[in-house]
Amino acid sequence: MAVSYRNTNIGELYERDFYLWIEETARLLRDGKFSELDTENLVDEVESLGRWKKRELDESLLAIMRHLLKYQYCPKQRLDEWRTTIGEHRIRLEKILTHSPSLSSLLLDKFAQTYQDAKKLVELEMELRSDTLPSESPFKPAQIIDENFFPE
Fold it and tell me: pLDDT for 127-146, tens place per residue?
């Protein structure tokens, strides 16, 4: 069943049927009908794509650091799935950075804070004292993305 927006302002369509709004916006862009675009919502959506990519980078970096810390500092509880999780997030991170190389600088900017977040989470999860893990990352950014690096 085809749904039409012909009697609906495209701005109103954004609120009523987001998917249809996307399709109509793409059609308007392809057809060069820029004056008919819902530019306010289009700008918001484009900006949200950038925030989403940054969030993906943050989540993968955090997951890698958490599991590398557990892998190195909790060897008696070491699980095979930690290596898998590290590998999975390295693949995600590689894809993010390949698709959006400008995010490489963000990875470096967020490195120290992400380590602090990972440290807190590992301390909670593994019930470690706050002085068990180093105060600064024992890993370098290059090690985080190196698929062959696992601390022993």
Answer: 999 999 999 999 999 999 99
Centre a 10 Å sphere on the Cβ of residue 85 and count the other Cβ atoms it contains: 18
Phi, psi of 59 (to 5 degrees): -65, -40
What H or E segment, with its residue span, contains residue 106?
helix 103-126
- What is d(CA 61, CA 145) in angstroms, rounded to the nearest whole number? 9
User: What's the rounded Cα separation, in Å, for the pair 31 and 10?
Assistant: 15
Identify whether 22 is part of a domain.
no
Residue ranges making up the domain that contains 131: 53-145
Mean pLDDT of 29-45: 94
Which residue type is seen at 10? I
User: pTM for the whole thing?
Assistant: 0.80
CA distance 138 to 65: 10
| H/E element, 117 | helix 103-126
